[in-house]
Structure formats: structure tokens, C-alpha cells
Design a protein that fits this description.
The structure is a homodimer of 724-residue chains.
Chain A (H helix, E strand, L loop, with lengths): L12 H4 L3 E5 L8 H11 L5 E5 L5 E2 L2 E2 L13 E4 L6 H11 L3 E4 L10 H17 L2 E3 L5 E4 L4 E3 L15 E5 L2 H14 L4 E6 L8 H10 L5 E6 L5 H14 L3 E5 L13 H5 L2 H11 L3 E3 L2 H11 L10 E5 L3 H12 L9 H10 L10 E2 L8 H12 L6 E6 L4 H13 L3 E2 L1 E3 L11 H6 L4 E2 L2 H23 L12 H10 L6 H9 L8 E4 L2 H11 L3 E6 L12 E5 L2 H18 L7 E6 L5 E10 L3 E8 L2 H4 L4 E5 L4 H10 L17 H17 L4 E11 L4 E3 L2 E5 L13
Parallel strand pairs in A: 1-2, 1-5, 5-6, 6-7, 10-11, 10-12, 12-13, 13-14, 15-16, 15-17, 17-18, 17-19, 19-20
Antiparallel strand pairs in A: 3-4, 8-9, 8-11, 21-24, 22-23, 22-24, 25-26, 25-28, 26-27, 28-29, 28-30
């Protein structure tokens, strides 16, 4: 169900902030969907004109009710449709006739039914949108909320009561309940303000990425939270992510479920192992999105990220006037890769004056009795530590203290030069109404527990790093020297439907991948000659497009040396192949250098229906197949990405020279990954799957010993779009 | 710093609920520690007599103030001491003279200072307690709170205001701030009631386990939450855990920090790899404790566990009137090993009637429009699903609905035959004051987010399984047949300070471990004879107590066959050993059968300062050393434990027959683990560390190919205590 929408970009301002809006299906019955949406439209302080449309009513809530859209005195910017499934297209026809730019179809009965009729109806809706040039939200959706301009067209129970003040957090969802209750309502409950919210339902036309892009472009939004089940368009995803980095507005994304295993062919190892979620996760990381696992993580992370300040590094300092929380925050931070640097000599000297008799002060810092009842000492310590160049982030900790002390702590956090978050685990001793919500409302980042605090700091670190990399251009994939698409493409044109190992490696060699020296022998005599040229020992392998699994066929001999042995091996390999597959076309026998011993890796390429060509990397043997220790990125990748892929592998330390072995050439592997990713990108229409297995990694360099390429049957195409 | 306290068991009732209590160092200055503690003593509704002691005051808060304990009209049950460090022992002397049974030393200046004087002072405190027969809490602690009887002797700011009603949650901590703010205050904030709370500080005498045991034994406590940095006594830990299972009152434990790496010798692989936290984690699991990572997890888990109802299995059903939360709850549950079984035919039939036209209903269940605005349909569906025998746990989901609907949901959860928890992600649409706290106060388990809900359900599953196993006796370690301690012990007595491979394996053979057939040759002729007896091929290995690393010495030959080769190998091995260690005493050369090829594992034993002998299991090669894929348990272990150890290994599937190999004999490995654990237990004073590396696991059986035993120098001792 991954239909790629043509990448039309429309300014959605008049959808979220129409001058006038109509609701077809408005009623006064607030137990009905139409009644609930109408109540929100009229009760949310909308400054524009509202046109209820319902042929059975003359008047609604003091407003003239119209029998049809055609009778309206003007063309509304945004029309909501709540009618029976059958009538949706009639109303859409009216909209098109009037030239309505934006329509929200609340009605259900489309692809969510899972029926062929429903799917066909949804396809028709998209076709209608394209033909009429209208942009359509939904169907089966719950509309939009605009806290900035006071427009709500939605049935949600989450905005009952007086309209809350707007804030700088945008929220994008597919599900109405999840986006509006679990994220929006809960975010407001802890004190966050919202700018815009959308619940796009089935997303026939406009999708979460369109809404996220709109919000990113508004001055009122500083962070966008997305709760989604699927992404329709990988290229649009990348473009929106780049825009988020450009504008330094982070996107935090919760994505669950929707495993569509089996949608991908699986002739190669790579194809068989990858899960959709692994790929989404990898691409989100590659493009600087902050991924979280739960709805509450979304808004908890936004409490810090909405300030749009990024730490210069991973070093944090936590300071507590009591000891108990120090250990917990240290552990929680370590779990998120937050570092607790030792303080500089200058800082130590300043702290020694504040805490006489305590010797060297550790980080995280327990102020112990030196700060008991002495908030002035505590604040002086905070200032001394914040001035330390090793400290990028500050976490002052408060248990249960007075309102005045808490307020001073909040002021410190708010005004600190470094990125700061307050960890306030207890209550206010002299004002029960003074709560974390009080401070979050005032824009201060406050956390009640160490883990969400550390998660948010890590998110700020990650996004900051991404923004830096983006600014420096090092996130723009660069085509390495020594790539020859024309020759690789010509080589592919010479191949049949199924490529042999030799053909696959020849193509890869044109992209600068170091393949084993090898040549094809058509007779045992030729094999002997070739073996002499290559140098003993050699490997002999059957070369046949019809035998993909040479080992299974027994048509392979390794470590052969000597003329007689080579000649005999040739005959044996051919005989084994004939036994295994009597009908197979045999090109001959590949005579190949034996690669030196090294660490075996596997590189692969697969095609994701959303994100296109994906590169996969893992250690060889059990690591990929049994332990599923593989990392992914969308092709093409940068050198930063390639190194990150290697670092992500649990087995990465096997490359560092364990058990007395010399370290392996990781730089060569990273370069190979980049080259392979360009191959994957350039041949994305022609190559369905690819395995390099094994890649033998040496102390210096690496060698592609075997490779498998599965064609799509399409012609090779080189993208001229450069980086994507 | 792991001093083992003699296991004195004292009934602590009169400590938590004294008839009379004195506070030495009471003042009227509430900014001082003594003033704050006195305020809590007098303001918490204590029904007994309070005696303030302070020579500078005549009267305090309307109570007569005494110059010293000696002047009191009676001997108090519990005396609190807040005096300068120097004066603590004087006051303790007064307590002893009066025969005071319980003392809490709030004063600091003991081992927490990290100074030799402080440590010496703490040792003196313990000696004083033992000599006087008093039980002492602290020093450097924050006392106890008893919500049941209304007694508080603590300085905490967490119980300011009117005393809250008691509940059934006991809380034990070392740190005052953490236990009283992060756990107790926060638990009360979400609506939980507390029975007892203790913050034991340095724990010279009474420790967290004593307080936990007291709480477990009170009728008022149904679950105990522990926030700790260390455990002093492994045997007491096991005893308290057993009592918790016996009473079906779960202990939830948060333990952090305190890595004391380096406290353990590391001559073996096993010793070098284990972290203290890995071991605590494994032993907690082995003994049925629920371990969590954060303070909030403690009380969140208690929201369900306090009901003391255990699911019969792992099958849960979640039902939502809206779709959005279904995917999230399914994902979160899967992450905790919660299963979502397909409903039975009967249930499907019942649901088909309630949701006409929806076909087969999935679990978790989206009621979709069938339940929109129809809470009667929703409740009928809940009842139908709860009646399904495949369902062990029920999770009805609510977004934002009316008070009446929420109350009916709460009633369902409260009265359901199955273990049930309510997931309420939104608000109450018609009563803002009706919140999750309202329901938690009423005893209903309510969660706002899927993850804590699933974490609590999994905790209930785990504890239920543990209680079942405990009841059935299968958690009592059983000594397998064929263990011969006397012969193993006699063999050890014959060994020198350092055991050779042959000696180590001989000892293990007496415990029924299947070692390779082997014998010692003193000459090349003897080696040839032995090799003929054993059958070719054989391995030859130097046998010397002075050469632990035979491979490094080059004093090993594998796969040798033929008389000539064996004789030559003998000479080479001896020559290599002489070159490597000219001074080494050489017993001869071990001639050994070559084990058939199989999956290589590593079993080990190490000694933990708290938990005693620990068994470790991992796959061989990189899995243990590089990937740290090892599981631990305290010896002796049950067969359940041994199988759980194997299941925990990431690489466990290598035993299941991957890549075309036949499955390996896991049952034999589990039996071996049990035997090795008894060996570790029986020789815990004599054996410091032990490696079986490799253990070769075959399709049928397994073979100990090499073993290393590091002695402590103590004599072997067999425990007669049976299981511990």
C-alpha cells in the first residue's frame, strides 16, 4: 500500500488558517460526529466566517445553515465533509466547481475497510484531488487544530473547555485518538503549548510529511512531534528532514507497528533479514530525526527541544544538594551516552572554596552537607560548574524545597549559557500549586525523572551534531573518485537475466570495489595457465548463471596448487555442476586468487518500497544470519554514515584486533560501503538485491571474495539528481 | 566494604511502632535537623509518649524536655540520636544502660566520610550493637515512617501536611532523599498509600533486608519497594526473597551504581568478565525479585502488584473503543514478552454479534465504530473476552470519556476474574477532578502509558511463575545423583597449590562432568602406548602446575595419529615447555582423546563477595570474551535456572542447529550446569575460580575438553546446609 504521491508542494496556510470555512454535515447534535466537529469550529475562537451546510437545517448555533455548498456567498478556503461514504464524491464535485483549495474528508469507508471497494474509492479520491487541483486531507481522519489562529476542525474531546494559549510545539499524527489525546492533550497537561496539530487518517493525498513541513515553516513552531504508523514517500521524508536541519527545528518521531514483512523479495541474505522497522530506524537516524518509543517520550523530549539550543558536546554535569539522586542520574546518563567529565582544575578550586574539607569533587556532584539549607552555596557551585569548558550541559537537581529556591533554580536553567534542564524529583514545600507544570508553562525545561531528562539531552546532542554536520556539508553524499557508471552499465548490458559471481564482481570493480583477481577458464589446460598467472594457491568455482549456490552444488575447490591439482579440480568442479544441474548453462570455471585470511564481513543492498535502495553491513558468518547484527542506511551514504554503520554493530570490536589479532582496515571498509551505496543508488532500478559475502577485511585493505547480484529486469539508470 | 553481619533476626515491630520514643538532640528550630525530626515525631499523630532530650531546654512543644536519657521516667522502645559525632557513643552508652531495644543514629561522621577514622567509628558502632544487644539503624540515616500506627522519626520534607491514610506499599531505601522523595512522596502523589518506610543510611547493623523482612511480615504490607545501592549479605537476601515468595508478596528492587570492579581476582576468563551488576541482576531474577531501572518504575509497578494477583500465563487481551492505542500497546507488550493470543471460536462468535460486519476480530482489539458512543457494547465485548480461557490478563483502554464510563471501566478492572489493568491515556470529559489518582486511591490499577502497564503485567507474570515454582518445590536446588564429594575432595588434597588441567578434570569427573578420556605419559614410549589405548587421533598437552597457558607455551599438539607422530609430539611438547618455562615442574604429557567437533561453550565459576559462588555460562570463542554474552546464577542452581541461563544467551540459537547443523544436546548442558554449580557450592571455600573452556556440546552429550581451577588455598568444605 505504498503509493508514491507525486511530490506536489502546496502552502497549507489557508488550510490551517482559512479566512472562511464550511462544514458539510454540520448538526446541532453533539453526540454525532458532525455535531462535535461543528462545536469545535464555533467554540475555538475562530476569527473567520463559518458556513454550516446541512439541507435539513435553516440555522445552526445562530449561523445561517446552507442547503449545499453551491449556495454559499463565497468560496471557503477549507471545506470539511462529514457525509455518508456514497455522498462524498458529490460534495467533492461541488468543492471542485467552486474552486475550493482545501478539503478535509472526515467520512470513513475507504482503504481502512481493507476491502477492494474501499481501496478503489480511495484511489478515486486521490485521482479527484489531482484532477481538480484541490488538496485533500483524509479520508477517515480527524482534521486540524490551529492554536495560533484559533481554528479547529476536528471532533476531538481533547480541546473541550476554554482554548489554551498557543505554544511552539507542532503535532502530526495519522490516528486522531493518538495524536490528539496521547500526544496533544497529554502535552498540554504537563504545561506545553501547541501551535498546530493534524490527524490525517488514511492520507489519500496530503500526508504527515506535508503537515510536518507546513509546521516547520511557521514561525510559531519550534519542534514537530510525529506519531505515525507509516511513511508513504521516502524522498519527501528526506527532503522534510533536510529542511528541519536547515531550520534547526527538530522532528521527534514515534513510529510503530505496520511490519509489512514479505513485501520484499528475498533471494539474497540481505533481503531475507531486514525488517521494515530496522530500515525506518536507520534512515531516521541517517537524516537527523529523533526517534522515540512512546507517546509520552514525544512531548517529554519536546520540553527541552522546543528551546532549540544544542550542546557543543556530550559532557554534562549534574549537581544535587542531596546525594540520593546522583547515582541514579549518573547511571541514566551513561545509558544514553551522556558523559560526566571530570571538572577542570579551576572549577575544582572554586568548588573547594564552596565545600571546604571535601577534597576532589566528583561529577555528578553531591553537594552533601555543604549545601544543606544553603541555596546560595548551591547556586554558586552551579555557576562555577557551568563556567567549565568541559561541561556542555547542566542538570541541577532539586528534591522538595521552597518556592523561592525552585524559582531561582528555574531562573538558572533559563538563563544558563549552557544547555540546561532542571531535574525536580519532589514537591514545593510552601506552595502546593507550584508544580513542574508551572515552570514548563513558563518555558523552563523541567523533568521529574532522570531517564526522560537524559533522553532529551541526548536528543539535543544528536540533533546538534546533525545540524553541525548538515551545515558543514558532510551530510551531503559525495561520489568518490574512480566510479565508472558507463563501464559498469555496459557490463550489465552484456549479462543475461542472472548474473554470475564473475559478472557481479566485474560490475562492482567499476565502482572501485577491490575484487579478487580471477579469470574464466574454458578448459582444464586454460585453468592451469591461469592458475600459474594468478599464483598458487587458487580457488576454482563453477561459472554458471543457473547455479547460484556453488557450495551447495559442490562445484567449488579452495586452496588448490600445482598444475595437476588445478587440472583435476577443473574437471571435478565441472562434473559436480553437471550432476547438480544437468540443464545448467556452464560458462566455464572461475580461477581465482585465494584471499589472505582476515575478518569476514557481509555487505548487501536491498530495495525498500519506501526508501529505495538500502545498504546493509554486518560481520560474516553467524553475526548476520543468526545474531541479526546488521546496520542499514539509505543509499547513497556519506563517510560519516558508513563509519556510524560500523560503530553500530555489536561485533564491531572484532575489527579492532581482539584475541591477539592486528586491527583491521576499517577505513577501507567505510570507503567500500560508500562506493557500494553509490552502486546501489545508480543501479536502483536494475538491481533488486546484492550480497557481497564474504568481504575479507585485511590489516590493509579488503577483498570482495564472492558477490551475488539479483536483477530486476529493468535497464540500468544513472540518477542525475546527485545526492538522492 | 562487604562486611557480613551475623544473621540475627529481631522483630522490629517496637522500632516502627514504639510505645514510647525519645529523641536526643530535639530542638524547636525547624531549620535544624533535630528540629525537623522532632516536628515529624510530634506532628504525625503518634499515639505513644514522646520524650525530647536536650540539656539546654526545659520544655519543647508543650512536652517536658529532659537533660539526658537517664532522667526519663521509663525506658523508651526507640531512641533517636542527633548529636555531634563525638557524643554518639556517650548517648549509646546511656541507651545500653537503660536497656533500650532500638536506636536510630541520625548523626553522620562514619564510613560515609571515606576516612579510616569514619570506618573505624562505624565498626565500633556495630561492635557496640552486638555487645549491648541493641539493634541500631544508621548511622547517617533518615529514620522510619509508619503510616499504619502514626509514628515518624525522620527529617523528611515528604510528609509535611496532614498525615495521609496508610496503604499497603512498604518502601525500603538506604538514601533518605531517594526513598522518601523519589519513591514515597511520588508514590503518594499518584494515589498509592504507604504502610512503612525506612531510610537506613550507612547500615552498620540493621540493613535494607531487615526492614524489608519486617514489612513483608506485617499484615498491612502487600508489596515491598527497595531502592538500594548495595546488598551486604547474600544469604540473607536469598532468605528474604524466599519469604517473599512464601507470603506471595513481591519485592520490587531498584539497584544502581556501586560497581566495585577490581574487588575480585581475575586469573580466569570468568573472573575477568563478570560485572557486579550482572551478578546482582542474575541473582535477583533467580530468587524471584522484580528488578526495575528507575524510581518511578518502583511505584508504577506497585500499582498493579499491590493487588497480589498473578496471571496464569502470558496471554493478554487489550480492547480499545478507538484504534490509535492498539498498535502502541501491542508493540509495548511484545517488548515485555506479553503475548496476544488469538481469541477462541466462542469468543469470536460473541464478538461477531457485538460488532456485526467486522469479520475476524484481532487481539489487541480495535472496537472501531462498533463501540463509538456505545459503552454497553464495549463492556459486553470486555466480558466476552475476559471469559476466554486463552486470556490471562485484561487491558481495557480508555481515551477521553465521561466519568460514568470511566467508573464502569474501573469496576470491570476491579472485579474481573482475570488480572486486569486499565490503560487510561486521556482525561475525564465531564469532571476534571476525576483523574487516575482517584482510581488508584480506590485500589484500581490504572496506567496512563502502555509501557509501565506492560512492565507491571510482566512483573505479575514473573512473580506468579516464581511463586508457582516455589510452591512446587522446583526452585529448591536438588543434588543430582552421581556426585562424589569425598573423592573430589580427596583428589584436591593430593594437588599442589596450582592444579593442572588433568587434576581439575579429575575433580570435575567426580561430580559427573563428562571429561575427555586421558592419561599422563612420563615418556614418549608411554605416550605411544596410551595413544593406542585411547585411539587416534589424540591431543598431547604439557602437564605442569607451572604452565597455565599451554597454547601460549606452544606445549600442545592436536589431532596426532600414528606411533611415530605421537612419540615426536611428546618430545616437541616437552621441549617447548622447557623453552617457555625452564624452571617449571613437569609432571609429564597428557595424552587425550580428541573430542568430536561440536558447538564450543564455556562454563565458569567465580566468587562474588556478596553472593558467594556464581556459575557463568556462555558460548565459546568471541561470545564470552568479545561480545560479553554470558549468563550468571548463584550456586547451587536448579534445572529451571540452568535452562533459563541457556535461554538468556543471545547466541543460544547456535545450539538449536543453525546453518544446517543438527541441534545440540541442551539437556546435557543444563545437567552439567547444575553439577558444576554443586561443585562450586561444595568447594566454595577452596576454589576461587574455575573455567571449563571449551565444553564441546555434541548432538548427544558434551565433553569437557579443558578446565582450569584456581585455588583459594583453603581446605575443601562441604556445606551441610543443603540448598544454600
Amino acid at each position: 500500500m505504498n503509493v508514491t504521491t507525486p511530490a506536489i508542494e502546496t502552502d497549507l496556510t489557508r488550510m490551517f488558517a482559512p479566512r472562511s470555512a464550511a462544514l458539510v454535515g454540520a448538526t446541532d447534535n453533539t453526540t454525532s460526529f458532525g455535531g462535535r466537529v461543528f462545536r469545535q469550529m464555533t467554540g475555538f475562537g475562530f476569527p473567520g466566517t463559518i458556513y454550516p451546510v446541512n439541507p435539513r437545517l435553516k440555522e445552526l448555533n445562530g449561523l445561517t445553515c446552507y442547503a449545499s455548498l453551491k449556495e454559499l456567498p463565497e468560496t471557503p478556503d477549507h471545506v470539511g465533509i462529514i457525509v455518508s461514504t456514497e455522498r462524498v464524491f458529490d460534495v467533492l464535485g461541488d468543492c471542485a466547481a467552486l474552486g475550493v483549495p482545501f478539503v478535509t474528508v472526515f467520512s470513513a469507508g475507504f482503504s481502512e475497510t481493507g476491502t477492494p471497494e474501499g481501496r478503489e474509492r480511495q484511489a478515486r479520491l486521490l485521482a479527484f484531488a489531482r484532477a481538480s487541483n484541490m488538496r485533500i486531507m483524509g479520508p477517515n481522519c480527524n482534521g486540524v487544530v490551529n492554536f495560533v489562529g484559533g481554528f479547529a476542525m476536528t471532533s476531538t474531546a481533547a480541546i473541550i473547555g476554554p482554548r489554551a494559549a498557543p505554544g511552539n510545539v507542532g503535532i502530526v499524527a495519522q490516528s486522531g485518538g493518538l495524536g490528539q489525546i496521547n500526544v496533544m492533550w497529554r502535552a498540554m497537561e504537563i504545561g506545553l503549548g501547541i501551535s498546530y496539530q493534524s490527524s490525517g487518517g488514511n492520507e489519500a493525498d496530503l500526508d504527515t510529511l506535508d503537515f510536518a513541513r507546513f509546521m516547520l515553516r511557521t514561525d510559531e513552531t519550534d519542534v514537530v512531534l510525529m506519531a505515525i504508523e507509516s511513511i508513504k514517500d521516502g524522498e519527501k521524508f528526506k527532503a522534510v528532514a533536510r529542511e528541519a536541519a536547515e531550520r534547526e527545528k527538530p522532528i521527534v518521531v514515534l513510529k510503530f507497528g505496520g511490519t509489512e514483512a514479505g513485501s520484499r523479495a528475498a533471494a539474497s541474505h540481505t533481503g531475507a533479514i531486514a525488517g521494515d522497522d530496522d530500515i525506518f530506524d536507520a534512515v531516521a537516524r541517517q537524516y537527523g530525526l529523533i526517534r522515540v518509543d512512546e507517546c509520552n517520550h514525544l512531548y517529554e523530549t519536546a520540553v527541552l527541544l522546543r528551546r532549540r539550543r544544542w550542546p557543543k558536546g556530550r559532557g554534562a554535569a549534574a549537581v544535587s544538594p542531596t546525594g540520593g539522586n546522583i547515582v541514579q542520574v549518573a547511571d541514566a546518563g551513561a545509558g544514553f551516552g551522556i558523559e560526566w567529565p571530570e571538572y577542570s582544575k579551576e572549577t575544582q578550586a572554586a568548588l573547594a572554596q564552596l565545600m571546604p574539607g571535601y577534597g576532589k569533587v566528583a561529577n555528578p556532584t553531591d553537594m552533601t552537607s555543604a549545601a544543606t539549607g544553603r541555596q546560595d552555596v548551591y547556586r554558586s557551585a552551579l555557576n562555577a560548574i557551568a563556567a567549565d569548558a568541559r561541561v556542555d550541559m547542566m542538570v541541577p537537581i532539586f528534591a522538595s524545597v521552597s518556592r523561592a529556591d525552585l524559582q531561582r533554580g528555574a531562573d538558572f536553567v533559563d538563563q544558563c549559557d549552557k544547555v540546561a534542564a532542571m531535574l525536580w524529583v519532589g514537591g514545593c514545600t510552601d506552595d502546593a500549586a507550584y508544580t513542574p507544570k508551572t515552570l514548563i508553562r513558563a518555558g523552563v525545561p523541567v523533568y521529574r525523572d532522570a531517564t526522560p531528562c537524559m533522553r532529551a539531552l541526548r536528543a539535543a546532542v544528536d540533533f546538534g551534531e546533525y545540524v553541525e554536520a548538515h551545515k558543514s556539508g558532510s551530510k551531503e553524499p559525495q561520489r568518490p573518485a574512480g566510479i565508472d557508471f558507463e563501464s559498469a552499465s555496459a557490463a550489465l548490458r552484456e549479462c543475461g537475466a542472472r548474473l554470475t559471481e564473475r559478472e557481479a564482481k566485474r560490475m562492482l570493480a567499476h565502482y572501485g570495489l577491490p575484487v579478487t583477481r580471477e579469470a574464466l577458464a574454458a578448459s582444464s589446460e586454460e585453468a592451469v595457465t591461469l592458475a600459474r598467472e594468478i599464483g598458487a594457491p587458487v580457488a576454482l568455482k563453477i561459472d554458471s548463471p543457473d547455479i547460484a549456490h556453488k557450495t551447495e552444488a559442490g562445484a567449488i575447490r579452495l586452496g588448490v596448487h600445482g598444475d595437476e591439482a588445478v587440472g583435476k579440480a577443473y574437471d571435478e568442479v565441472v562434473a559436480a555442476a553437471r550432476r547438480y544441474a544437468p540443464q545448467a548453462h556452464i560458462n566455464g570455471v572461475l580461477v581465482q586468487e585465494m584471499a589472505p585470511a582476515g575478518v569476514e564481513m557481509m555487505l548487501g543492498v536491498l530495495r525498500d518500497p519506501v526508501f529505495g535502495p538500502i545498504v546493509a553491513v554486518g560481520l560474516g558468518g553467524i553475526h548476520v544470519e543468526v545474531l541479526k547484527d546488521v546496520s542499514y542506511r539509505a543509499a547513497p551514504v556519506t563517510l560519516i554514515d558508513a563509519n556510524a554503520m560500523l560503530a553500530e554493530l555489536r561485533a564491531a570490536k572484532l575489527l579492532d584486533g581482539v584475541r591477539g589479532m592486528a586491527p583491521r582496515d576499517k577505513a577501507a571498509v567505510a570507503d567500500l560501503i560508500v562506493r557500494l551505496s553509490w552502486f546501489a543508488h545508480d543501479f536502483r532500478d536494475a538491481v533488486a538485491e546484492l550480497d557481497v559475502n564474504p568481504l575479507v577485511v585485511l590489516e590493509h585493505g579488503a577483498r570482495v571474495v564472492d558477490a551475488l547480484i539479483v536483477r530486476t529486469g529493468n535497464a540500468p539508470t544513472l540518477s542525475l539528481r546527485g545526492t538522492a
